[in-house]
Amino acid sequence: MWEDYARPIVQHLKLQIRLNLKRRVVEIRTCDFTTDASALTRAAEYTQAFMTGFSLQDATAMLRLDGLYMESFEITDIKRLKSTRTRVVVADKKVHVMGSVDSIQHAKNVISDLVLGRPTARANKKLSAIATRYKREL
User: Fold this and answer.
1) How far is residue 98's CA from residue 85's CA, in Å, rounded to a whole number?
2) CB–CB of 44/20 below 8 Å?
3) Is the dihedral of CA 33, 18, 60, 62 positive or negative?
4) How many alpha carbons fall within 13 Å on the CB side of residue 10?
5) What are the backbone angles phi and psi of residue 74, rounded to the nearest 5°?
6) Each residue of 28-85: pLDDT tens digit?
7) Where does the PNO1 second type I KH domain start and stop, copy by copy (predicted)?
8) Which residue of 18, 44, 52, 106 is surrounded by the most CB atoms within 10 Å?
9) Which domains does the chain have, with CATH numbers?
10) How far, in Å, are 34, 103, 109 from residue 98 at the CA level?
């Protein structure tokens, strides 16, 4: 499991990584082969996505795709949301969404509607409209 987790950091981002068992932390640092200035930030986002509960495959997609981000919010903080083209993890009272900036905003709107008790049909209608819009863009 450790090798599967560490391999993308070493191969894609050209960073050094080690597991410090004494302090119970993952240590990541740059080296002479690191070319991307944002590599440490991307490795931290990858690690956070995996530790949050996203699959290793989904977290690895964050390293390969530039426009993919993760956002977390408390269910109690919800005002309104929509959703499409995102991955969602719900843990206790926190919701973690991975996708593009626009997709995350859509997902937050739909999730909020559902949590606030709005009809499921309304959320499905929003999702259909968003999906149609995305299909037209392609």
Assistant:
1) 9
2) no
3) negative
4) 10
5) -85, 140
6) 999 999 998 899 999 999 999 998 888 999 899 988 888 888 887 676 544 433 444 6
7) 82-130
8) 106
9) 1-54 (no CATH), 67-138 (3.30.1370.10)
10) 26, 8, 14
